[in-house]
Write a structure and sequence with these properties.
It contains three helices and no strands. The chain is an all-alpha fold and 61 residues long.
Length: 61
Amino acid sequence: MTAANHARHSSLMRAERAAGEAFGWPESPLAEVQRTLFLRPAIITAAMAATTLAATLTYFV
């Protein structure tokens, strides 16, 4: 990784962390993040099914 890429990556990581903390989402350990509601396979599948259904209904209406 070049120095410019490293600097850009570090800058983006700082901005992402600051944005998360500004919205009340402090950085969490990976194990804690993996247990969140949005990363469960059943929730992702249900969201995809609902989106597919909504898109299909929109297409026919």
